[in-house]
Amino acid sequence: MYGTAIGSKCDDLVTPALLLDIEAVRRNLVFMSERMKNVPSKLRAHIKVHKSPDIARMQIDAGAIGVGTATLWEAIVMARSGINDIFIINQVVGSEKLTAAALLAHEVSLKVAVDDSANITELSKAACKAGSVIGCMVEVDTGMRRCGTASPEEALQLAKQVTGLPGLRLDGITGYEGHCSLEFDRVKREQMQHEAMKYLVSVADLLRNSGLPCTIVSAAGTATWELTGNYPGVTEIQPGSYATMDNYYARFEPRFEQTTTVLATIISRREDRIVTDAGAKTVGADKALLKDYDYPIYRYDEEHGIFNIDSSCPLKVGDKVELTIGYTPFAVNYFDVYHVVEKGKATDIWPIIPRGPGHGGLLNEFKIHS
To answer: Could you give the percent of the chain with pLDDT greater than 90?
Structure first.
C-alpha cells in the first residue's frame, strides 16, 4: 500500500508521514556497540519504542543479545522475524495469553516477568499443557511503584515457588528504575539510580544465598543505561530509545541522534500562526517540535499542529516541514509504516507491527494449536 513512495523525494511524500533517518540509526547503533565494549553487562534491546522487526534485527546485528518487549504481541512478531531470545518485560495474565506464551516458548527462548503467586501457578499449568519451559524473571519494584514485589522476602518466596513448579525455569530478577527517568537533575537522578540498583542487587544476593539460581539481573532504560550497565551485579540492561531517540530522552542522552520525524504539510497560514496537517492524533501525547525552525507550539488539536510565527517566517501553504517527536512510542503507535530515508529520498518502507492494545489476530494460530 505504501510501496509507491519508494524512490520519492521526501518533499513529494503524502503527509503526515513517519520518516526514519536510517543513516542516523546506524550511527546510534555503532555508538552503543562501541560503548558497550567497556560495560560489563550485556545489552538487551527493548523494542516497544520503535515496534519494528527491521530495527530490532539491526540491533541484534549490532551486538544485542536479544530483545525485550512490553507485550505478548510484540514477542510473537519478534519471534516471527527470527529473533530467538525474547524477554516479555511485563506480566502475562489471562488464559489465552498464557497459552500463546507457552506455545511460543517452543519456538524461542522466552522469559516473562512475574510478581504474583497465582499467576505463576497458571503459567506453570500452561507450560505443562504445551510441553514447554518458560523462563521466569521475578520483578522487583525498585522505586517506580508499578509492577514488582514489595519486599525482598516476597521476591524470595516467589522465586522459590517458580523453582518448585514444572514447566518453569527461574532465570533471575528484573527491576526497571523508570522513576529515575522523571528526574532531570543529574545528581539526583544518579543518586536515585544508585539506590535502586543497590536494592535490586541485594535481592539477587538474597536469592543466591538461599540456594536459588539468579543468573540474570536485568534493569535500566535509556536515561540510566550506562550507570546501570556498569553497576556491579547487573548482568544486562534493557534500553529502547537509544536506537531512535526523541525530544524527551534527548535531554538525558544527547549523544544519540534523533532519527524519527513526522513529515507534515503547512495547510494554513495567518499573520501570527501556521497550521500543519499533523495533529495530536499523529504525533501523540508529547507534542512534536518544528525541526530547523524556532517557532513555539501554540496548540495541538486532533488533526492540526499550530505554531506561533512572526512576519519573517518563510513558510507558506503547501510547504513541507519535519516535526521532531516528543515521545517516540506514542507517535509510532499512530502509523502503519516508516518511510526509510537516505539522502533525502525514501528508499524503503518498513512496517510497524504490532500497534495498539489489540493482538491484531496474532492469537488465532495459537488457539488452533492449544
So the answer is: 94
Distance of CA 57 to the CA centre of its chain: 14
Cell output for 311: 512576519
Comparing CA positions, the residue from 184, 157, 181, 159 lying closest to residue 170 is: 159
Q: What is the distance of C-alpha 87 from the center of its chain? A: 12
- More confidently predicted of 118 and 363: 118
Task: Give CA–CA dist 283/327, Å, rounded.
Answer: 8
Cα angle at 284 between 278 and 286, to 5 degrees?
Answer: 110
Share of the chain above pLDDT 70, in %: 100
Give pLDDT tens digits for 234-255. 999 999 999 999 999 999 999 9
Closest CA to 22 of 295, 341, 311: 341
Position 370 scores a pLDDT of 66
| Amino acid identity for residue 23 in this structure | E
CA-based nearest residue to 109, from 69, 139, 79: 79
Distance CA 368, CA 370 (A): 6
Dihedral pair phi/psi, residue 121, rounded to 5° = -60, -45
Tell the residue number behind the cell numbers 508499578, with chain if given: 146
Q: Which strand (E) or helix (H) includes residue 98?
A: helix 95-104
Instruction: For residue 366, give the nearest of 107, 162, 136 by alpha carbon.
Output: 107
Within 10 A of 48 (CB to CB), how many other CB atoms are there? Answer: 20
Angle at 256 between CA 78 and CA 67, to 5 degrees: 15
From the list 204, 175, 180, 184, the residue with the least C-alpha distance to 192 is 180
Residue 279 has pLDDT above 90, yes or no: yes
Residue 345, phi-psi category: left (phi > 0), alpha (psi -120 to 50), beta (remainder): beta
